[in-house]
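Ops channel
N.P.: pipeline sanity check, posting one input/output pair.
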């Protein structure tokens, strides 16, 4: 199917440098490349080649990973390796309602809205206005903002009127927010907390166990690329190691009331 007007695409050159473009059927200016007759998009499809200023480019529709890695960053983002785990372990799919605590620069929000579209939505509670502004800008750039809503406030006390299929938390003290926001998570819903330090892992794991959550566990994902050359293949000397810990759990019907830990006197 040919590219449509207002669709977000990217051109990639022979050195794998990407140039992002919003499709128009009129003349458009592409930074560092020059002017391009946008009517040519009517005859281009995913993966087609085009020549601009004597250079050849391939044109692609972006996938979620392309959108996430192209964001304007205000804060450190959740990386694709961790996002993939969140989407899978929280069983996030089209039509779901997701409650997100903490927006950052919107990398996870971008992946979540892409996953729940076109029939679901993501609602974000964020304490910093600048993070909401940055996330909103990134989502509008890709057209995913139509599947997103937000509140500015502290999730420890802000009233949230939503019934979510999954609760995703990217904040340093998620255990302190549970009593306020757990009523927003449906019975059987899944929770994920993304945190950078092991002492935080202990706090949120014990808090979920105290509230009788099921299937509580924590993982860390390490990513290593391979160097592939003619006649030789080896692991790269560099790798994307620690970015954060992921804590997961699933809500039972009776998870609202904090319980006494079985090992506590």
């Amino acid at each position: 199917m040919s590219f449509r007007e207002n669709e977000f695409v990217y051109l990639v050159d022979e050195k794998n440098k990407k140039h992002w473009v919003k499709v128009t059927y009129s003349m458009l200016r592409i930074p560092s490349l020059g002017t391009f007759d946008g009517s040519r998009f009517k005859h281009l499809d995913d993966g087609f080649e085009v020549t601009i200023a004597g250079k050849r480019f391939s044109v692609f529709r972006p996938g979620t990973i392309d959108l996430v890695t192209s964001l304007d960053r205000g804060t450190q983002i959740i990386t694709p390796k961790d996002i993939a785990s969140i989407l899978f372990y929280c069983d996030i799919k089209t039509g779901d309602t997701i409650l997100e605590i903490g927006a950052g620069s919107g990398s996870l929000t971008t992946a979540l809205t892409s996953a729940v579209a076109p029939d679901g939505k993501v609602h974000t509670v964020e304490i910093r206005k600048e993070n909401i502004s940055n996330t909103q800008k990134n989502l509008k750039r890709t057209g995913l903002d139509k599947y997103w809503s937000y509140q500015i406030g502290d999730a420890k006390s802000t009233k949230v009127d939503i019934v979510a299929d999954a609760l995703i938390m990217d904040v340093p003290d998620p255990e302190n927010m549970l009593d306020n926001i757990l009523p927003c998570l449906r019975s059987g819903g899944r929770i994920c907390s993304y945190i950078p330090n092991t002492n935080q892992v202990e706090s949120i794991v014990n808090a979920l166990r105290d509230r009788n959550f099921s299937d509580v566990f924590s993982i860390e994902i390490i990513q290593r690329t391979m160097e592939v050359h003619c006649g030789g293949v080896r692991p790269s000397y560099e790798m994307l190691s620690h970015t954060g810990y992921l804590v997961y759990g699933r809500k039972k019907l009776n998870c609202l009331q904090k319980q006494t830990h079985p090992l506590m006197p």
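N.P.: looks fine end to end. Helices lie at 64-69, 80-89, 107-116, 129-142, 178-181, 198-210.
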